Amino acid sequence: MTAVLEIAGLQKTYRTRKGVRRALDGFDMVVEAGQVHGFLGPNGSGKTTTLRTLLGLIKPNGGRMTLLGREVPAALPEVAGQVGAIVESPQFFGNFSARDTLSLLADAGGVERHRVDEVLELVGLRDRAKDRVRTYSLGMKQRLAVASALLKNPRLLILDEPANGLDPGGIREMRTLMRNLAESGMTVVLSSHILGEIQLICDSVTIIAAGRRVAAGTVAEVLAQHTSTAVRVRLDAATDVPTAAEVLTAAGAQVRVEADHLLVSGVERSSLITRALADRELYVSELTPVTADLESVFLELTGTAPVAGQHRQVDDTALTPAGETAAREITVGEFSVGQTQGGWGQ
Fold first, then answer.
1. What are phi and psi of 162, to 5 degrees?
2. Is 311 inside a domain boundary?
3. What 3-state class would DSSP assign to 200?
4. What's the CA gap between 114 and 126, in Å, rounded?
5. For residues 150 and 132, what is the distance between their CA atoms, to the nearest angstrom?
6. Are residues 129 and 213 in the same domain?
């Protein structure tokens, strides 16, 4: 497969009151043609900095980037017409209608006017096309932003949180649209915090934490690399959960307390869990192996899993030991490698 986006060793530092902050610390990323690729990371991990640097909005301190086989930012004028992007919150003139907004963008970009109606249909705004944007909900503005990025029918589409503000039906429609675009030959890079959607829609993912890549590959391969050994434990009485956590922790198990159950790992056999609890007259109503999902893998690799009694602060990401190893080189398949206003490239 042909890579439409390649990033190698990307560096970006900022000077702050606390000293030098490394927003990107040798970040690598590869996206193959015709895929829906998920770009994931916690707040402050470097996702938006990466996208803005890739699109020429921020100057990097080091590294190499290519779009559609051309090195950027030097070749941005040549590839801009083939890339559509939304980074951060899109902004539009409130007194303009959606059709007026897209028509102005089409004229500015040399796009034929019939494309305006096509993209309005694609994103579900056909019947509200004449309404002023100031009457739109957040989800409708997000649909308009996606429409603006699609005007030129780009080869590469980069979307930052496209489901922001959408209702469940809208999220499903957006999912279907992204898959249809990929099937038509377009490559889609999707940044989102809705990890269940990423797992459903994406062919491959890159996970970033503290400015470094901690995992990359197809969704199935990334999940396979982090098979969970945890067991979900429910008790006859939910009030026994804290006591059961103490018993299992004393027995050497690793225990995470959830609202009405426990997640227990580090135990050779499930029978040891039931025996330890039964000895204290604590009786199990459910004992289920936990299948690894993208959310649990993400939390493990980025070190952002909630900790009882603690309040994690923004940018307080600490790579777990697994994440540290992954940051050096955990890739699978063929992925191993040494504020716009309403869109970009329109």
1. -70, -20
2. no
3. helix
4. 13
5. 20
6. yes
| Phi-psi domain of 88 (left: phi exceeds 0; alpha: psi -120 through 50; beta: other) | left
Give CA torsion, residues 263, 266, 270, 272, to 10 deg. Answer: -110
Q: Is the pTM of this model over 0.90?
A: no
Contact 29, 9 (CB under 8 A): no
21-48 pLDDT tens trace: 899 999 999 999 999 999 999 988 999 9
Q: Is residue 243 within 8 Å of residue 255, measured between CB atoms? A: no
Retrieve residue 153's tokens.
């029918």
Confidence of residue 317 (pLDDT cuts 50, 70, 90): low
- Provide the residue range defining the domain that includes 135: 3-225+325-329
112 class by beta-carbon count within 10 Å (0-12 exposed, 13-18 middle, 19+ buried): exposed
**Which of 270, 341, 345 lies closest to 87, judged by CA?**
341
Smallest Cα–Cα separation from 259: which of 272, 247, 245?
245
pLDDT digits (tens, 9 = 90+) for 220-256: 888 887 766 788 999 998 889 999 999 999 999 989 8
